[in-house]
Amino acid sequence: MVTGITAYKRRPLMNNSIVYVGMDVHKESYTVCCYTFDKDKVEYLQKMNADYKNILKYIEGIRKRYPENAEYVCGYEAGCLGYALYHQLTDHGVECKILAPTTMATTNNKRIKTDKRDAGSIARCLAFHTYSEVYVPTDEDNAIKEYIRMRDDQKKFLKSTKQQILALVLRHGKRFDGGKTYWTIAHMKWLTALKLEGALQESLDEYLITYEHLMDKIERLDQRIEEMAIGEKYEEKVSKLKCFIGVKTHTALSLIVEVGDFDRFAKAGNFSAFLGLVPSEDSSAEKQNKYAITKAGNSHLRRLLVESAQAYTRGAIGHKSKALKKRQEGNRPDVIAYADKANERLRRRFYRMTLKNGTKRNVAATAIARELACFVWGMMTENVA
User: Fold this and answer.
1) What is the 3-state secondary structure (H, E, C) of the chain?
2) 108 neighbors 121 (Cβ within 8 angstroms)
3) How far is CA 109 from the centre of its chain?
4) Which domain holds residue 202?
5) Half-sphere exposure of 280 (CA within 13 A, CB side)
6) By the 8 A CB rule, do 59 and 70 touch?
7) Number of alpha carbons in the 13 Å side-chain half-sphere of residue 287
8) What is the pLDDT of residues 348-362, one digit of tens each?
9) How far apart are CA 373 and CA 377, in angstroms?
């Protein structure tokens, strides 16, 4: 049921306009309102149960308040609802935008945050276009994205299980003396050979069973991702991205399905900004202050590229491993040359930053990730000259 927070006021506009419908959406409820340049105020605020049909009824209800040929544009922040509400509205002929929260300009007092204020802020952002629109992937891209993220969740579970096993044996005075590297064949033999008392042994055994189960599961999921990557839609693009050091099937396919259309970024720097890999800045007049990266945008892809950048922190400049040569097979000569240029430049830059300039390792690796993102954009937009 739709419940009114403020009563509708009949005051028709004198000219044509676009009506911007801001929607603050949650799992159980939606709060919606309208904004037009003609009146320059937020009005017709409504709170309703979380059902797209209520939004359709709301739009039908306010049509009589505006000119017959007025256009309606709806929008909501990206969040827990994903793309479901977007598809439900667009399927019924309603134009809808999904706003990236980190890009929205807002003047609201952060100490006074209500659904009413948020809906009004969204409506104004729509009107003044002070936001970046979230790219809506195809159903196939979205399904593969969800599969890859599910696999990454299993990887997190595996990492947690490893930490729990190491903590358990350490708490009871058991130390591995076979080297500093864990989870090798020698380390696993040592773990399985441990003899603890009573329920402690049962606890360790259960942890090890969970570990083996997750290892097998992740291997199976990775194989499925490899199969997805050789589909007609993705194979060529994945093959190109795998020409870069540190970029394998998992990262390449993630970039493709989550970014979708790389051409929507006018420049490589725009793509880096989308990933939140550009430095934040606080400048005034002649004073310029730059800080850590903004971390705005797609955190999943940002993490994958930072992990890929770690591969540039080791190895000789210009050296190509057998695995990299294998991944580059079958690609065009200009594509391979472009990737080789990037690989050599990024390794050289990392060593220069850390060995010559004294830059901290993690800071340098993040800078490499930012430049790697630019090379990825160039590869995907055919700017490989």
Assistant:
1) CEEECCCCCCCCCCCCCEEEEEEEECCCEEEEEEEECCCCEEEEEEEEECCHHHHHHHHHHHHHHCCCCCEEEEEEECCCCCCHHHHHHHCCCCEEEEECHHHCCCCCCCCCCCHHHHHHHHHHHHHHCCCCECCCCCHHHHHHHHHHHHHHHHHHHHHHHHHHHHHHHHHCCCCCCCCCCCCCHHHHHHHHHCCCCCHHHHHHHHHHHHHHHHHHHHHHHHHHHHHHHCCCCCHHHHHHHCCCCCCCHHHHHHHHHHHCCHHHCCCHHHHHHHCCCCEEECCECCECCEEEECCCCCHHHHHHHHHHHHHHHCCCCCCCCHHHHHHHCCCCHHHHHHHHHHHHHHHHHHHHHHHHCCCCHHHHHHHHHHHHHHHHHHHHCCCCC
2) yes
3) 27
4) 139-229
5) 9
6) no
7) 2
8) 999 999 999 999 999
9) 6
Among 9-13, 138-142, 281-285, whose mean pLDDT is lowest? 9-13
What does the block give as tokens for 261? 């259309």
Number of folded domains that form the chain: 3
For 209-232, b where at least 16 C-beta lie within 10 A, e where not — what string? Answer: ebbeebeeebeebeeebeebbeee
Cβ count near 260 (within 10 Å): 16
In a domain, 385, yes or no: no
| Same-domain check for residues 209 and 150 | yes
What is the pLDDT of the chain when averaged over all its residues?
A: 91
Which pLDDT does position 6 carry in this prediction? Answer: 39
User: With the CA atoms of 218, 220, 224 and 226 taken in that order, what torsion angle do they form, in degrees rounded to the nearest 10?
Assistant: 70
Going across the sheet that includes 41-49, the strands are 2-4, 41-49, 29-36, 18-25, 71-77, 95-99
**113: CATH:** 3.30.420.40
pTM for this prediction:
0.85
CA separation for the pair 32, 56 (Å, rounded): 11
Residue 235 is assigned to a structural domain of this protein = no
Is the domain of 214 the same as that of 314?
Answer: no
